[in-house]
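tool_call: predict_structure(chain=1)
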Amino acid sequence: MKELFVLLKEGNKPSLLAAVVNTIISVLKGAAFFFTGNVAMFAEMMHSIGDAANQYFVFIGSSLSKKAPTPRFPNGFGRVVNLVCLGAVLIVGILSYETIIEGWHHIQHPTESSGMFITLGVLAISIILEFFVLYKASKEVLHETGVKNAKGLANLTLGFANLKRAKPATKLVFMEDLVATTGGILAFIAVLIAHFTGFLQAEGIASIMIGLMMFYVVGRVFLENARGAIGETDEQMLNHIAYVVSENEHVKDIQKLEVIKEGEFLHVELIAEIDPTISFAQADDIRDHLVDLILNQPGVEDVTISFDEDDGVSHWKQVSKRPDSLPPIQ
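tool_result:
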């Protein structure tokens, strides 16, 4: 039990914050739907429940993924976060379907809802809270990718630009809260249109749009974590580490280099060619230096390095220049 609490402390903080906030929001939206019968509010309630469940799963998965390797599982538990996310999207997928069905039913049989000010008030609070979580997630994206925070809303723009290199859990929180904020604004507009124009179908249309956005997140999360669960090559870091290694004067060529994503971590395997006249002690020093250098790169968890003698034949042809989107060599 003590180990579990230690692991939970290392879990993804943005996902925990998002889960707690979405739990509060879902309760508020549920109460508003109960008193008003507003179908757009129902869609938003389902959206928030799905997000909260998903983000609790992600937090727990990100915590368990940091468990140290064991004799039974020598490769560690990095991919647990991917497996948990794959399970979590099933919940969101079901809720997305229910949201779309409810919206379509409301378009076919529109009914007028009451309590406009209650609905708008809850939606306004939800939008503010969701935007707060989105802003915090964007700052976490910048922190994880080594980009300096900007001032004000510029962090959101930078978060978008660097989202691909963020950890899976943080990326998921960013995407979900972006959709949640957008969905809240859509629902807010739909309620106003239905009240002031009498076009009651607007709430049903908003519900369907929110459901479709949820399905988009489901698709993105599923594909991303399916690749992570299988073991995907990080092409950008592969080129970066190849450049880092090739800069070493003792490395004559690279026979093999793999950079595999496992959850939030990267595992590197390198076979490099060096001068055959170098002594064993010198080769050991070169290896230690390369291990330290690679471990200092963002997200790298472990490194396996082997040496072979230089055969005079160029094997690695992918290194041209260091990718500009990555931080400087450390």
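agent: The beta strands are 232-233, 251-262, 265-274, 300-309. Proceeding to next step.
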